[in-house]
Specification:
The chain is built from three helices and five strands; from the N terminus they run E-E-E-E-E-H-H-H. With 226 residues, the chain is mostly loops. The chain has a domain of 74 residues. The strands form two sheets. The chain has a three-stranded antiparallel sheet, with no helix packed on it. A two-stranded antiparallel sheet has the order 4-5. Strand 4 and strand 5 form a beta hairpin. The two termini are 29 Å apart.
Length: 226
Amino acid sequence: MFGADGEKVGKIREAGNGYIVVGKGFFFPTDYYIPVTAIQSSTEDEIYLNVSKDEALNQGWDTYPEMAGTDTVASTGWSTGAASTGTTARRDVADDTNLRVPVHEERLEAQKRATEAGEVRVNKRVVTETQSVDVPVTEERVRVDWRAPTGETTDQGEVFKEGTIEVPVSREVVDVNKRTIQTGQVEVTKEQEQRTQQVKDQVRREVVDVDQSGDVRVEQGGNAGN
């Protein structure tokens, strides 16, 4: 018997009135009673359901139809006639099964996205400081020297007259001007740098445990129990 997804559900054990029994096997803890309403198609050798394997095993069909209550009858698809009459026309078939139990695990997948980490601000401010410049300047000084008389006769018209003699005196004065020059520049460059960041998270995986009872020999291959 196969599900609608092509996965093998199990071997047919018996056929009853309104249902087919899939016998418990290596991984089945109990028999499953599949209603005939769940059959999509069939051939001489195989039966195909209209539900997947996982859906077939989770429909509550592990309960014998005659023991099912009203709610179970409605939910599992058992016909009330098959459950009430109790008449069965069973035939034995092979009970050995070859089942595939999918085992899953979660794995981390990392994706990168760009986000704003911050910013760098470049500020200019004006600082006032005192600067001195040495400038050589020239100024005139007045020197008055007394010389000894020569003994020459002086014109009487030029003597004994009052007056003032003015001698101009000059000097250099420094005028200070300012001019602006460029002393340099600041260049801001962004560079991309690769680094490795480790991320951690909790992941789940399925582990298959095989229980046995009685005098049964079980051989496990691969890493099914890990």
